[in-house]
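S1.2 Input.
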Amino acid sequence: MRKKKYKFIDLFAGIGGFHTAMHSVGGKCVFASEWDKNARISYETNYSNIEPELFKKDKDGNYLYFNEDINDVIPAEVPDFDICCGGFPCQPFSVAGLKRGFDDTRGTLFFNIANLVKEKIKAGHPPRVLFLENVRGLKNHDKGQTLKVILATLDELGYRYSCEVLNAKYFGVPQNRERLFIVAWYKDLVDVQSFKFPYGIAPDGSTIYGKDELKNGTIPTKVSDVFEPKNVTVNYTISDKMWEGHKKRKERNKLMGKGFGFSLYKGESAYTSTISARYWKDGSEILIDQSELGLNPRTLTPVEAGRLQGYRILGNGWEYAECSSNQNYNDSNPEFRIVVSKKEAYRQFGNSVAIPVIKRLAQEIVKQLL
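S1.3 Output.
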């Protein structure tokens, strides 16, 4: 049976994590928006072969469907779509008495999503599903008012919704990364009362639908799953000066009761802490122990940072060859190429979604809502 093609748009696209996930379930991207020039380079490099039409230009050399500034989007010029994907930035809203939602989002980036959806509904082409991601902190942002306005807006637009915090470490990547996901569906088109979130992936590859089932085990992971060979990683050993600085800062913060400092992991550790966009500065949140080699700790390489998010990046190979054939890195997954500087690569992967999480979510959206 031929897989149906679902049209989707990719807002606040970053380097295309949503694109990878939706493409894996037969999705076709008809419009994307991303303002960061380096992220745009990575996006076009990695998806131009998959969706060449997305990068078409007019006679003056302007992109037709690869938008730069979301504030310039004209809804009528966006092709109709089934699914709206977006990892929108978290912003406080001006909540005057907490009205029904939509008007309270004006002046924020979420409003761009809501307004585009509203205009498509008015034009008779309502998107069936909205697939949104944000930091876990959105749940309590501005004492919960921000999320309350977002959900009220979805309701006002005619959508039912479910939201849940999911952790990447339960989906087969060695990273403790929690993110909030909102899945919404248009009531007049999708006659479903609730959405069943996947909470993880079992060792046999099946989906775990109950939080209590996580204790029975998920795909086993080790930090060394992402490692490049030692002859490469040794070049990422931090200097004596930086290592001393990390240790002194941690001790100083401990005395002040802050608890901030570096985090050190071994290859056999099950997972790391969350990689962030600031990782390029000093790598303090994820340092790899090299004491068995008599060396200071090292940072992740850019390739390893990308693999930590579930991207299949060939780089210089793997320290342990068998890792190249796991669910994320085997050749059934598209190769992701790094074409920007180290600094930008770290920033991009730190800002990205974790691929296995949204791939499994995309599968469930197709199964349950489409």
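S1.4 Remarks. DSSP finds ten helices and twelve strands in the chain.
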